[in-house]
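Researcher: Structure for this, please.
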Amino acid sequence: QTGGDRASKTIALHSRIYGEAGRIAATAGTRCVIHTHSTHCVALTLQDAPPGGELLPPITPYFVMKVGHVPRIAYQRPGAPEAADAVAQAIARYGERGTPIGAVMLERLGPNVWHDSPAAAMAVLEELEETARLHWMSRVAAQAAPAPLDEARIEELRRQFGAHW
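Model: Predicted structure, token format:
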């Protein structure tokens, strides 16, 4: 950096997202990364769940179609290079499986989403946070997690809408 305001502590993370997403055909057009501290997404990471899993099960069709898989990235302090490495590895791992991702969840910090425009990234982020809120509300109301969509319904969303689930 040669001038101006100090760069974000997450610049290395965002740079790695652009680099890894660019290597995957389905996300090669990535032009925007958004990171927030979305309340319901963060709340879900405070639960006793093993790191390395995913933030949410496929409970709504729009979550499957618009968001897809959201791997949980184990807690690292904000700006830690290990977080950038873990995110890059997750992007590569899911891409190799043929299920490209457009979001990750940094435990206790918040989601990072990426897409080809700010509007598209924001639409993914909104659907992610609303699904997290729905999941949280359902768990509180029923004292249990909502049932995910079954494999047949997810396969129909893959066929009909090209969902990468």
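Researcher: Any notable elements?
Model: The two ends are 39 Å apart (CA to CA). The beta strands are 32-35, 72-73, 103-106, 110-115.
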